[in-house]
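Box 4.2: Ligand-aware structure prediction
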Amino acid sequence: MTTSFARTIVDEWVRCGVAAAVVSPGSRNTPLTLALVRDGRLRVDIVLDERSAGFRALGVGLASGRPAIVCCTSGTAAVNLHPAVVEAHHARVPLLVCTADRPAELRDWGAGQTIDQARLFGDAVRWYHDPGPPELAVDAAAASARWRSLAARAAAHASGPPAGPVHLNLPFREPLVPTGAPLVDAPGRAAGAPWVRSSTARREPTNADVARVAALVRAHPRGLLVAGWGAGVDPDVADEFARAAGWPIVADPLSQLRSDAVTCSVSTYEALLRCEPFAHAHRPDLVVRIGAPVTSKVTNALLDDVATILVDPDDAWLDPRHAAQERLGVDAGALLGALTGELTEPDAHGWLEGWRYAEQRARDALDHVIDDDLACEGRIARDVAASVPAGGALVVASSLPVRALEWCMTPRAGIRVLANRGANGIDGFVSTAMGVAGAHPGPVVALCGDLCLLHDTNGLLGGVALPAVTFVVIDNNGGGIFSYLPQNELPEFEALFATPQSVDLVDVVRAHGVAAERVDLSALPKLVAGGSDAARVLVVPVDRATAREQHTRIWAAVATAVA
Ligand SMILES: Cc1ncc(C[n+]2csc(CCOP(=O)(O)OP(=O)(O)O)c2C)c(N)n1
Ligand SMILES: [Mg+2]
């Protein structure tokens, strides 16, 4: 019966559009492991470390928008999925978590590898369910209805909106391997359809919403469209709105709006807003924000007390600075599109033109200094983003890489920029990028720090069988980001915050059977652009202190250029 159950739910998940699974080895999850592999229609990756496995499945969901299954045994194995579950929850990434368990009669009686797995991930899941062990006697009709609706419901909750993790705790009784007993055929719907079709539409803006916001936009010619991760708007729609409103777009690379096709997009806002006179003269009086706040602290601080309209299709309350005067739980593309039709007097005050002029000056100054042989994270991020082949995905790590990209990335079209920004962890990065590569149709490049790589070297297990991700690792021997914080002045800085690990990253990577080389900054763009048909790691050494000083030079040059 256990085998029939596992085969049925896997078939149902395939009908629901699930295409990938990540399995960590164990005994208790044998029924589901065998069903996933023997079904033959899923991409199944075997990943030893459950923490890595969770992020691997997360990466698939991040790239494809469709949930991947992660399946593990009981006990601490299940607990190790928690970081990925938390990230999926905050970042709204679909994920189907299946933890195997002992049946109830063995829980809390000292059975091996048995812990309390009920609601293990707390509120960080869209749905938790424990269906109990598959029944001993069930007819085909009941099996179809019970098992298939369980699987279809789990997939529906994971897909959202809002997308996120679902936890199925699945107790299996022994025997865990197929017994040869006849299987229960639990047929699905005709023509491969899912057992339950779920559709939960997102709210479209009403005419009243559009009229109210349009009036506000018209009344505030000095406005900004701010776009962070999760903005979820077609670049043309955002640009048409911006032109009609006469507003620039502050475009975090993670918004997917930092594109040369988006004429109103501003890429140099970090440097511009660090320049006091510019920031003072360019203070907006209204912000419409789509998606999460941008990464830049300087920008967010400046927008602190500016009236803000938050647009989030899932109605999330992403307002850490308590700046919102209005929230709209609607599809941002639909709202911006409708607003464009209501706006007629573009840039009568030269506000947008002023920003665009500044952007151009700042861009030239920034590129000019960087090309003056700088060796800092900003240059690496800029060059890597420019070199990712068209159609590719750039996965960027938290800490300095995501900020360096925000500071320096030149607008360009044709790539997706992805990151784990739900909880901003530096964990699980290698695995996330591997997961992205398993689902993204084009080449995948991943940019991370040295500590971030070391945090998930287990993601490199698998060697030659791994997806062909090109990792660029900025080796500044420690947590460079902390040099930009007040902790930098503490006598304990190196020991407690920078924590240089002083390991040879190339050796570490090669020990996993993955190609690695130390590369010079000037060689990097060509190597990244050339792509690769196997996973490889390019380690770029950077001197932490020099790099910090060089970023200051960039900001000074931009300040001079727009003075
Ligand atoms: C899982 C997790 N642990 C700890 C942190 C705190 N943290 C933030 S940045 C950082 C250092 C990262 O160093 P590295 O990856 O080398 O990047 P760099 O800042 O040098 O570019 C740490 C430990 C975190 N964000 N996530
Ligand atoms: Mg570092």
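In the box above, the bound molecule is magnesium ion. The CA atoms of residues 161 and 314 lie 7 Å apart.
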